[in-house]
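User: Design a sequence. Structure:
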């Protein structure tokens, strides 16, 4: 058992592959690693490791996607003029800020979660934002984050040893114990293949809006907070030696079929 290291393991978590000996240890490992115990159906598998079971799993996954898309297409909110106007307004305002904002159809998790709004009186976005701390397996969701707030100020309640909540500070002690100069903020570049994932490094001293300019965002930004001193698998574009850094024009590519249909409907 990888939790208590005392008893013989009887179970293996489908999500993180950790071995456990009992229900108590299963619950402990889920709490410690923020693991939901659900197998990741979209995890990348190399061709050499691909089996008939993986093929069957992919087939069932596509069936589930088809059912979900069909249910979403029948949802009354999809055809609501007010909803279409709101999404069109958000995308239009984002385009004016040099941000390519893409929205998903109703039924997708990110569409349901997204609480991003635009205040016309203040001419300001209030973003739905997700912070991911990979070294501690922790995620936090922020709502109503003004676009003129710097990334350093956004992170203070989480990694600043003086201003962070004691519970959060304890969970993120790897970050709070490290100097601020070691903290890197990354954002995944959208519209790349699964085996060629790259990240853009953001500037903590600049505002959220400045960092999002020239980027492609699907529903809302997700920021990954990593430490330079700790090993991670996130490759920053232009720093891996295999390809040059992209500009904002080359980052965007054609929309997926579901996004194209949704935007045509909204327009």
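Assistant: Done.
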């Amino acid at each position: 058992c990888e939790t208590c290291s005392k008893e013989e393991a009887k179970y293996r978590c489908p999500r993180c592959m950790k071995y456990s000996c009992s229900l108590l240890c299963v619950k402990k490992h889920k709490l410690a690693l923020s693991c939901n115990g659900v197998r990741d159906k979209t995890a990348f598998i190399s061709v050499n490791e691909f089996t008939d079971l993986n093929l069957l799993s992919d087939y069932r996954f596509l069936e589930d996607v088809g059912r979900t898309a069909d249910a979403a297409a029948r949802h009354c909110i999809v055809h609501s003029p007010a909803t279409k106007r709101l999404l069109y307004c958000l995308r239009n305002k984002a385009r004016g800020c040099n941000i390519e904002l893409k929205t998903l159809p109703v039924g997708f998790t990110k569409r349901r979660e997204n609480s991003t709004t635009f205040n016309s009186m203040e001419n300001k976005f209030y973003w739905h934002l997700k912070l991911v701390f990979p070294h501690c397996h922790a995620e936090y969701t922020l709502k109503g984050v003004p676009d003129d707030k710097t990334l350093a100020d956004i992170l203070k309640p989480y990694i600043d040893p003086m201003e962070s909540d004691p519970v959060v500070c304890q969970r993120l002690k790897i970050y709070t114990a490290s100097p601020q100069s070691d903290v890197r903020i990354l954002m995944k570049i959208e519209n790349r293949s699964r085996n060629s994932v790259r990240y853009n490094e953001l500037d903590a001293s600049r505002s959220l809006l400045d960092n999002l300019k020239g980027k492609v965002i699907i529903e809302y930004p997700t920021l990954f907070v990593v430490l330079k001193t700790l090993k991670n698998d996130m490759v920053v574009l232009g720093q891996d030696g295999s390809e040059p850094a992209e500009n904002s024009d080359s980052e965007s590519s054609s929309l997926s079929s579901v996004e194209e249909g949704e935007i045509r409907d909204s327009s």
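Residues 129 and 221 are 6 Å apart (CA to CA). Residues 245-267 have pLDDT under 50 and may be disordered.
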